[in-house]
Amino acid sequence: MEHPAAFTTAKSPYFERQVNRDSHSNLAGFPAGSNIKDRFSVQPPRDWRTLKTEQWLEVNCPEPTPDQGWKIHVSATLGNAERILDAVSELCFGERVSFKCVPTRSQLFQRNAKYAPREASGKFITIYPPDNPSFVSLLNCLDQRVGGYEGPYILSDVRWGAGPVYFRYGGFSPMWTQDDRGQTVPAIRAPSGELVPDVRGASFTVPDFAEIPRAIAPLVRERLNPTDDGLSLGLRPYSPSSALHFSNGGGVYLAVDEATGQRVVLKEGRKHAGLDSSLRDALTRVMHEYSMLKALASVERVVNPREVIHLGEHVFLAEDYLDGPTLDKWVAMNYPYYPGASLEAYSESALSILHDMEQA
What we know:
Low-confidence stretches: 1-33
Distance between the termini: 34 Å
Order of helices and strands: HEEEHEHEHEEEEEHHEEEHEEHH
């Protein structure tokens, strides 16, 4: 399972209904009367350069930036993103450190939506420290300035403090190489000068040649080689055995109740992640599902909810596992237009299922 702790460029029709890109408008999830602009803005010093791309607003200081190193990510919610950007950009201007940010709230929503790529989820601001001492200093300064804010957990990084500040090792400048499958992927340079893949998945990795500053070494070691599986301990008596589904809102896991031997399903809800069209996060939806299942407990055909487990900033809904194919799989297996299939038999079975649903 992932440590408890994606991105498209297409406009989201759901979010566009909440934000008018060309003017001020009220945004769902904010207090009534709030005037919220979609596009973020920064005011860099005169000698700095800005570059707007489809995915980022890049803000570059005149001093050179290394090609790779320890980078810092800052996450944010739709509600606090502007305040976090103001605080972080002010620090970066003062320290003469280049950074980039997601340019609009629409795109920040897309990054944190339910089926956004998990490896990019939560990453609102990326900071490029010029060296390791500056990296450590910036971590401490950022924690002081924005450590009290909330944001989505960044799965690919290590968290610094209890706020929205994270870090990982990776490339700063665009460099490319081919992976084992012959695909062109982002790269970093090994001490030999060879370009190797810059692994950017949904879990934390660090190249074996990276110098690890002393200040972060314990956090890196614990993340790479956890001495205590707090996740499994926190889920007892349920022991996860396999993953049934992953989304940016969390995983769905098949587990065993160690006390009874029965199979159960664990549905994870990540806070501030997996946003839906109403801007609800996955944690809110899981809690809503639990309350609805409890309200329908007297209905024979409704699955039995066992309990909700709060684990850090995540929740896990434990419910009974029902064996058998899902409705979409049943439709695929009984497709009535295969050679030799019977439309009459399909119709009879489908109507029987509908009757059961109506009875429920």
